[in-house]
Amino acid sequence: MDPYIITVASEKGGVGKTTLATNLAIYLKALAEDLPVTLFSFDNHFSVDKMFRIGTGSGHGTVAELFTGRRIEELTELGQNGVEFIPSNRQLSTLRDMITGDLLARTLQQSRGGGGIIIIDTRPDLDIFTQNALHVADRIIIPVKDTASLENSRYIVDFATTHGGGRKTVRILPCLVDARIHFEGPFKNALQLLRGYAINRGYRCYEGHISKSSKVESLNTNPEGRIFPVIHHARNTDVHLQFAHLARQIIVDIKDTSERRIGQLRLAEEEQHLRRDHALQQRIGDLVPICPLCSEKIVDDGAIAAVGYFWVAHHEQISGYAHDDCLASLLSQTFYPTSHPGDALRELFHETTRRDHFVLQRTQRSRNYPQQEIACYRFDPAGRLLSQRTTEDATAQQWLRHCFGGNLERVADGFIYISHCDADLPEEALYPEAERARRELFTRIETQLL
Ligand SMILES: Nc1ncnc2c1ncn2[C@@H]1O[C@H](COP(=O)(O)OP(=O)(O)O)[C@@H](O)[C@H]1O
Ligand SMILES: [Mg+2]
Predict the structure, then answer these.
(1) Mind listing the pLDDT tens digit for each residue in 125-175?
(2) Which pairs count as long-range contacts for 237-241, CB under 8 Å and 24+ apart, including other chains?
(3) What are the Cα distances from residue 394, in Å, to 290, 327, 409?
(4) Using one digit for the tens of pLDDT, what is the confidence trace for 239-253?
């Protein structure tokens, strides 16, 4: 079973995100003792550590390791009130440029599957860490304390719609509400006003709110430098009842939903893999199955035998593989006609062909003659022309003619592109990324053909 993930987010600071995330973990654990509850924060205030750490901590890892392939169970530390937490990290932001929006999802997809609840506290910023947390969330809670923070919710709702589990995952929760202030008119107080605004914008709200309380505010100011939980230290406040009420709503939500966002993401990824495999099998099936130079079979029953080169004609319409030796000897005969097999120059040339790109094309001046002269171009890895030779090699001519359906007219400006491929993974040349890279290369190469 995958965990149910709750992300607390708001682009505004000081709206009560951390207080909500940390205390909610305790209330949820108290209500459902058998459910593992795990908490971590992408903020660098260490509130989570200050509230939950027992003793000096055992140092399993930090939230940064969630992005480096460690499993979540290797990072959690058992904290106060039975809540598991992952220690915060002061240098998290240095990872910023190295991570993508789905890394956390990948880490959580690999988790052992003990179910339970994960609560993620975020920074007041839609940065890449918050984006990761929104992407995986079954539930996004946005605490709002005024109309400005409510207006700001729009960006999170938009993000949830495009990159997360959708708008339906979002709940607004009025927090730090001062119920003593009354208005004239349709909205009697700040709470009613916020709810009215939220509903008008099509956002769903939790039942209830979290009041502003000086007792709660005082819980993080003490000589020990700890943060005390509401459940033990502010039991006689409204906030205690409000957290308990909120936690009950969340437990009901969890029991009511059998699907988990992480499970859906895993499924979508598996489907994508299947589609990719299928597309690859189709590409392999469409290949010219023999080496065009020696006619020996290369592709057999969906498998590609040991080869050295991949070639493409007609801009991806016809393609196949060729033996290392067959193609290397054609190329060296073209570029170094006087050399012999075993020749040092030829060996050196053979070595360097592994990174370069080659193109075979009928030369302009022989286009109207049956005897074809073939131009062979050599490009460096960046697609810059290195050298050009002509050949009348019969095999090359046959190959060119064959690729263009035996029709000389169709050969016209067409070319055969050749590049070395990894003998251990020849199908890499058929991956969509490789095809995209080739198309880019072709536009660069074409302008340099004579
Ligand atoms: N219900 C509350 N009543 C009074 N003060 C609160 C309440 N919740 C949070 N605070 C205080 O408000 C400040 C901001 O809260 P915090 O949870 O850190 O917000 P955020 O994580 O959104 O920046 C903190 O000083 C916190 O102690
Ligand atoms: Mg915070």
Answers:
(1) 999 999 999 999 999 999 999 999 999 999 999 999 999 999 999 999 999
(2) 237/211, 237/213, 238/211, 238/213, 239/210, 239/211, 239/213, 239/215
(3) 18, 13, 18
(4) 999 999 999 999 999
Closest C-alpha among 80, 81, 43 to residue 62: 43
153 lines ligand 1 (CB under 6 A): no
Q: What is the pLDDT of residues 104-127, one digit of tens each?
A: 999 999 887 778 999 999 999 999
Tell me which of 217, 230, 242 to substitute to probe ligand 1's pocket, judged by most ligand atoms within 8 Å of the beta carbon. Answer: 217
- Backbone angle region of 43, left / alpha / beta, with phi > 0 → left and psi within -120 to 50 → alpha: beta
The finding on whether 19 has its CB within 6 A of some atom of ligand 1 is yes
**What is d(CA 435, CA 433) in angstroms, rounded to the nearest whole number?**
5
**36 torsion bin: left (phi>0), alpha (psi -120 to 50), beta (else):** beta
Q: Assign a CATH topology to domain 4-268.
A: Rossmann fold (3.40.50)
Does the beta carbon of 22 sit less than 6 angstroms from any atom of ligand 1? no
What does the pLDDT look like over 190-208, one tens digit per residue? Answer: 888 899 999 999 999 999 9
How far is it, in rounded angstroms, from Cα 331 to Cα 346?
10
Where do the domains of the chain lie?
Answer: 4-268, 287-446
* Type and span of the H or E element at 312: strand 309-313
Pairing assessment for the beta strands 37-41 and 117-121 based on DSSP bridges: parallel
Number of H helices, E strands in the chain: 15, 15
Strands (DSSP E) contained in 323-430 are: 357-362, 374-379, 385-391, 415-420
